[in-house]
Design goal:
The complex is a heterodimer. By secondary structure, chain A is of the alpha/beta class. Chain A is built from five helices and six strands. Chain A has helices spanning about 15-25, 110-115, 125-135, 140-150, 150-170, and strands at about 1-10, 35-40, 50-55, 70-75, 90-95, 105-110. Chain B is globular and about 65 Å long. Classes of the chains: A alpha/beta, B alpha/beta.
Chain lengths: ~170, ~400
Amino acid sequence: MQEILWLGRGGQGAFTAAKLLGAAYTIDSADKYALAFPSFGPERRGAPVRAFTKLDTKPVTDRSQTEKADYIVIIDDTLYSPQLLGQLKETGRIIVNSKNKTDGVLTFDADSIAAEFRLPTANTVMFGLLVGLSGVVATDEAVEAIKGYMPAKIQERNISALLKAVQEVAE
Amino acid sequence: MSRKFLSGNEAFAEGIRLARPQVISAYPITPQTIVVERLSEMVEDGSLSAEYVHVESEHSALSCAIGASAAGARAFTATSSQGLLYMAECLYYAAGGRFPIVMMNADRSTALPWNIYGDQRDSLSQLDSGWIQSYAENAQEALDLALMSYRIAEDSRVQTPYMANLDGFVLTHTYETVDIPTHEQADSFLPPYETDNRIDFDNPKNMAFSAGPDTNYIFKYKAHKGLLAAAEVITETEKEFADIFGRHYTGLTENYRTDDADYIIVTLGSIAGLCRETADKLRGQGIKAGVVRIRYMRPFPNEEIAAVLKNVKAYAVLEKDISFGNEGTVFTNVNSALKKAGADVRGYNFIGGLGGRNISAADIEKIYTDIANGTDAVNFIGIGGGNNGK
C-alpha cells in the first residue's frame, strides 16, 4: 500500500488534492482501490489541515490515520518541521511548496505556477509535482480526475497548472 | 454501472436516488448533512423526482416521513446523534404504525460533553424502538444497503422501518471507489412501493389508532414478529441482489477466519476492517484469531453469533457504546445469544472510540492478547477495567 500525507491550511485544498489522487488512481482500473479522508473536524480557514490518500491493489480496509507515509506533500511551507521526517517510510520523500531550499526535502515554487494560471491555491500544482516525481498515477489519469471531480469552470486552469508542474519535474 | 470516488454520505445518496423515494424530509446535522445536500441537488437537477420537504426539526422530519408513508409514498429521512434522540418519540410511531420508512443515521456521539465525532451511542440507545438496524462497513455497502433497505422494509412479512447506520466521519466523510448500478438494474430489483397500509378514500379505514389493554399487546407481538421476519427477507433480498448486481452479502453477520478460531472479536461498523487486518497479523504468529462483524443489530443474529462463539476459547465484544451503570449494549446482546444457546464461553467487553477517539491496530492487538490471558469483564480501551461489571 502507498500512503500519501497532505498538509495544508484550511482553504488551500489539501483534501481536494487527496481526493483527486484517489480518484486518479482508481479511474479506469477494476483492481485498484483508494481511500481518501481529511483529519476530521470543524473546518476553519487558515487552520492546519491534514489529509490522507491510501492506494492499493486490494480493498483498503484500514481506515486509521497514516503513521508512515511514502510521500508527504506540504502546500504551505510554514507547516514543515523536521519531525515530519519521522513520519516517512525509509524510501519516503517530502515535497514542499517553498521559494526557499530546505535540506532533506524537495522544494518547488508551486505558488508561482499557481499564479501563472490565476489559481488562488497551489493544490493541483503540488498534485502535478507528486505525479511527476512519483509516477504513482499517470499524467492523463490525473487530468481525468480533475475533469471528473472539479467544477467545470476551473478545470482548464487546474489542468494547465498540473501539466506545467509535471513538466517542471521532468526538467 | 459506473465507478466513482465518493464519500459514504454521497454513496448512500446515490443508493437512495436509485430507490426512487417519493418524499424526502430532512433537517441537517453534522455528519449527516452531505447526504441530504446531495439529495436536494438531485431533486433540483431533476435526476430524482421527489417531494423534498425542508422541515424545522428532526421531530418534524420523521413526522413528515410518517405522513408520507401513511399516504402510500416511499419516504426517506436522515439524521444523527441528538437529532435522532430528538425524533425518538416518532421512531415508535413509525414502527408501531408499520410504516416502512428508510432513515440513514450518521453514528455520532451524544452530548454532554458536546462532540460531533463518531460513536454508536445514538443508534444503540434506540434498539428497542422497533426499527431494523443495519451497520455498514464501507461506502459500497452503504450504497447497496440504501437500495436493499426498501426491499426489506416494505416486504409484506416485515412492514417495519429501517435505520441504516454509517459511522460518522470515518465512513460518512471518507472517499473510496464505489460502483453505482444503473437505474435499469435498480428498477428490476426494487419495484414501486405498494401497500394496503395507507389512506385510501375508496377503502376508508382507521390508521394509527389507540388500542386498549386487551389488544395492545397483540399489536406489539405482531411488530416483534415483523422485525424477526426481516432476517429471512434479508437473506432472500441479498441473494437476488447478488444475482443482479454481482455483489454478495452474508446476512445478519459477516465472519472472518472464524472456522478454527480460538479468539474472536465481535464488532460492528467500519472498525471491522482493522480487526481483520490484525487477525491476519496474529495468524502469522500462530494465534488463531477471527472476527465476527455484526451487520444487523435488529433483528439480532442470536443463532449466527452463538454458532461461531460456542467453540472459541474466549471472545471480545468491541463497541463504541456504553450503557452507563452496566456495560456496552452489544455485549449484553451477544452474551444473551450464547446463554440462550447453552454455551459457556468467557467473554469480555471493550469500549472504545467514544467521541471519535482513534482505535489503533495496537489497541486491537492488545484486545486479542487480553482475552487470551483473561482480563476484566468490561474494559475501556486506554483506561482499563477496574472490575467494572465483574
